[in-house]
Amino acid sequence: MSRMLTSILMIGSIGYFAFRYRYRLINVLLGSSWIRRLTVGSIMSFPGVKRKMMQSVFGGPSDW
Fold it and tell me: Does the pLDDT at position 59 exceed 90?
């Protein structure tokens, strides 16, 4: 019981600090060029995201 409670508290604490410092964590992670390239490539592989991004960058008919 004690071990399970300790695990729950540790996971909760890590989640709290990750949420609190989420922008700092994102800046650290995306500071590396290969991680940034991998992240952007993964996000742009979703058809809906890519279509919306291309419409906002290059213009065109909006279907919002």
Answer: no
Residue 34 backbone phi and psi in degrees, to 5: -75, -30
Q: How far apart are CA 56 and CA 22, in angstroms?
A: 26
Put simply, whether the predicted model's pTM sits higher than 0.85 gets the answer no
Residue pair 9/2 in contact (Cβ under 8 Å)? The answer is: no
Q: For residue 55, give the H/E element and its range.
A: helix 47-58
Over residues 4-44, the pLDDT tens digits come to 999 999 999 999 999 999 999 989 888 889 988 998 888 88
Domain residue ranges of the chain, discontinuous segments joined by +: 22-59
Rounded to an integer, what distance in angstroms lies between the CA atom of residue 15 and that of residue 28?
17
